[in-house]
């Protein structure tokens, strides 16, 4: 059975949504991915949507929506995206913080940088899960 991974931050509109989308591309054979937050936004950050569509040809407006922590199933692994304030808590066997800055309100270049960083981290996470390096 594949482990379930939750990408969490406060609003579930930008970084955690990008992580969910990229996990579906690069790691769906290794783990199931979800994203959620303690608050939701009426829509996903449209700059993030545009960048993910441009770079990876995925329309997050069609495939994802902003969700609360209670809207997702119990998970095995929690990835915090990097909260400057209080990060939400979700029980899991393993938790790590990726410490990513929120690109909201910044240039497209910053969004692309964040997306590429998330892509690298998702691939690394998938490798670690596959090689049983997480639950040691």
Automatic annotation (TrEMBL):
It holds the Pfam family LMWPc. Gene3D superfamilies: 3.40.50.2300. Keywords: Arsenical resistance. Residues 3-128 form the Phosphotyrosine protein phosphatase I domain. This is Arsenate reductase ArsC.
